[in-house]
Amino acid sequence: MNFTQKILAWYDANRRELPWRGSQNPYHIWLSEVILQQTQIVQGTAYYLKFVETYPTVFDLAAADERDVLLLWQGLGYYSRARNLHFSAKYIVQNLGGVFPKSYRELLKLKGVGDYTAAAIASLAYNEVQPAIDGNVQRVIARVFGISEPVNAPLGMKLIREKSENLISHTHAADYNQAMMDFGATHCTPKNPKCSECPFSADCVAFTTDTVAKLPVKIKAKPKTDLYISYLVILFKNSVILKKRTDGIWLNMFELPNITEETDLSSEDVVSALKSNFGMTENSEIIDLKIEVKHVLSHLNLHIRFFEYKAISEADFQKFSSISESISCTLENVNQYPKPVVLENFFAKNCLI
Question: In the chain, what are the domains?
Fold first, then answer.
């Protein structure tokens, strides 16, 4: 029995029951694949079910307001995925008559769809013979066949793809791709893989040469950048100021007015900078709430602090809502606006919502 036959046999006996499994609906498969990028299955499944319930067809998603899509996505992170999802849904409806692209090449034309996602949709929906290569697949191939080139460098990626193209089943492409993903996610895991009960252990180069822990090889990413965000909670009675992001990873989401620095400032310096940035007088009373949060992103370490200013009058409060892309919002309605999870947690933990 060769590798392909073994992985398909393993899948028959060990496949995970997932809500999108068994479906050949390309819209549902697309939703699941985009949601599960950089997301654990347990968390992603809940979001997938919410999306399918709220937007059961690509027409429903295309007709949605972006704010509502981001609100439903809130907590998943990597918000560009949600924006691209919405953009591509509108493209499919407006330019393709609502007919989903039917091939790997055509799927690649969708915004936010790369090699892996296009191959996954093409194979799962249409059984097109395209290997879907994610981190799980890279790890399995590198270990079983002893590929020591970095899998995130051109040569290593080329070797993994060539091997994958030779191994994929031409009659059961969908099952093969799902088998490889499941095997890497549940069996040939990054740490503590189940080598003693592995169907490939006798032929696995990594196992027979005791290099399982060393493969796959990856070039280390550049060190993350540290940014220091100081949020200002501007309150008046039961209202707060929110500001819509016009750039960056949180584009079109809402956050609190803030200043962002590349160095850590003292509390006194932050207060002074906030006053200067928002046109406040020296006598304006800004309180350091002594709340510090570290929020880790793929390329950034965000060090977040919160300060509070209680407006002395409605006129004083309203002048802040005149800041570009800012609005005043009652605390009861804060949940109607999509926010980074760090701010969602802040409002919830501090009994503001």
Answer: 3-214 (1.10.340.30), 225-349 (3.90.79.10)
